[in-house]
Structure formats: structure tokens, C-alpha cells
Design goal:
There is one protein chain. By secondary structure, this protein is α+β, with helices and mostly antiparallel strands. Helix content is 38%, strand content 12%. The chain has a domain of 60 residues. The termini are far apart.
Length: 89
């Protein structure tokens, strides 16, 4: 798995003050380069997700079914968080 910096295959600049002084630890990249890095990271995430799901399916273990959350029944009272006076403000 790559680190975030490995997705950036572009020049990285240092942010500077108008006086020319460098601001510590503030790397700057071009917008298009950042978009390309994000797209590459998302593509890798999809690949890793596919590989993980395939491994889970092939493991052959039967996992217990997840229990659903209880439905919102009419017996469950729903109370407003704010009073009507506060909502009007």
C-alpha cells in the first residue's frame, strides 16, 4: 500500500510569505496534480477492496448474520431537540 506522498508524481513547492520567508511544513502542489493523485488513490482503494472481498469469500468461513437495527415503531416517542421558541429565533 502506498503512502499519500507516493501518489504525487509532481513538483512540490513550499508555501512562502510575501516577504519570501518559507512557511514551515506547508507543501503546495498544483490543483490538477492533486486531482490525479486522488484519482490514483481511489483506483487503488477499489483494487484493495476487491482483493479483500475476494479473500473473505474464499476463506470459506461462515460469519453470523448481522442483526438489523430496531425499526422506528409508533410506540417510540420522538421529542424535539429544541423548543418552538428557540426554533423561531
Amino acid at each position: 500500500m502506498k503512502t499519500p506522498a507516493e501518489y504525487l508524481n509532481c513538483p512540490v513547492f513550499e508555501l512562502t510569505y510575501p516577504t519570501g520567508e518559507s512557511i514551515d511544513s506547508v507543501p503546495v502542489v498544483a490543483y490538477n496534480d492533486a486531482l490525479q493523485a486522488i484519482e490514483a488513490a481511489l483506483a487503488d482503494a477499489e483494487k484493495y477492496k476487491y482483493l479483500l472481498m475476494r479473500a473473505v469469500r474464499r476463506s470459506g468461513k461462515q460469519y453470523p448474520a448481522m442483526q438489523a437495527l430496531p425499526a422506528n415503531t409508533p410506540e417510540t416517542p420522538v421529542l424535539p431537540l429544541y423548543s418552538p421558541d428557540e426554533l423561531a429565533a
